[in-house]
């Protein structure tokens, strides 16, 4: 059995980064480079699941952030046998939705959530691949807070230099801090 530290170091070794993508000055961390290797992807899913299971109080629902958050959020929801809800870029979700405008490291957009998908007080874990400036995660938290959910966040990678954590006022769990 590998320790969590060894698992995380192994994932880090397989994480490829690209300078100046998609814009000058951005160092893009490509999570798909990890998923391309099934053994390493399994290690990542194991560490994430253990982290999600350790969260107190127990998570009752997973919210995935469009689109890379879906890769991990839906797998966790299945493993934990709890609901998965999508937080999507604008214009993708049918029915009544709430919307929040936000800025991220290299663009701006709107995130939306369907009305009635979470209940007041529900323990919701927002899942995404990466925390950079925190714009995306904080918009997702805002949507869930408007619905009066009890929110925590889980990301695979946190880019600590960009200090995204500072603008998010709920607990954030991250696996890899770079
Ligand atoms: O902390 P921030 O500065 O907000 O950046 C982080 C967000 O940026 C990326 O998403 P992106 O909107 O590029 O979409 P994608 O997942 O569809 O590639 C990433 O998956 C996070 O959601
Ligand atoms: N540096 C980065 N790498 C990958 N995804 C990102 N989303 C925002 N900033 C990013």
Automatic annotation (TrEMBL):
Keywords associated with the record: Cytoplasm, Glycosyltransferase, Purine salvage, Transferase
GO molecular function, one term: adenine phosphoribosyltransferase activity
The keyword Cell inner membrane appears for this protein: no
One GO term (biological process): adenine salvage
Pathway in which this enzyme or protein is active: Purine metabolism; AMP biosynthesis via salvage pathway; AMP from adenine: step 1/1
Enzyme Commission number, as recorded: 2.4.2.7
Catalysed reaction, written as an equation: AMP + diphosphate = 5-phospho-alpha-D-ribose 1-diphosphate + adenine
Domain of life: Eukaryota
Gene Ontology, cellular component aspect: cytoplasm
Major location (coarse): cytoplasm
Keyword Magnesium in record: no
Subcellular location: Cytoplasm
Record's function text: Catalyzes a salvage reaction resulting in the formation of AMP, that is energically less costly than de novo synthesis.
Family per similarity comment: Belongs to the purine/pyrimidine phosphoribosyltransferase family.
Assembly mode: Homodimer.
Descriptive protein name: Adenine phosphoribosyltransferase
Classification lineage: Eukaryota, Metazoa, Ecdysozoa, Arthropoda, Hexapoda
């Amino acid at each position: 059995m590998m320790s969590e530290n060894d698992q995380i170091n192994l994932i880090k070794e397989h994480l490829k980064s690209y300078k100046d993508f998609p814009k000058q000055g951005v160092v893009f961390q490509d999570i798909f480079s990890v998923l391309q290797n099934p053994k390493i992807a399994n290690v990542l899913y194991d560490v994430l699941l253990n982290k999600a299971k350790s969260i107190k109080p127990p998570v009752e629902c997973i919210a995935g952030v469009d689109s890379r958050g879906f890769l991990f959020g839906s797998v966790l929801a299945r493993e934990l046998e709890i609901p998965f809800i999508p937080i999507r870029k604008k214009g993708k979700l049918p029915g009544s939705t709430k919307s929040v405008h936000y800025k991220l490291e290299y663009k701006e957009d709107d995130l939306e959530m369907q009305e009635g998908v979470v209940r007041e007080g529900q323990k919701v874990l927002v899942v995404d691949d990466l925390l950079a400036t925190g714009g995306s995660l904080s918009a997702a938290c805002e949507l869930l807070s408007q619905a009066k959910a009890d929110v925590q966040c889980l990301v695979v990678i946190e880019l600590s230099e960009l200090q995204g954590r500072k603008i998010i006022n709920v607990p954030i769990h991250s696996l890899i801090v770079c």
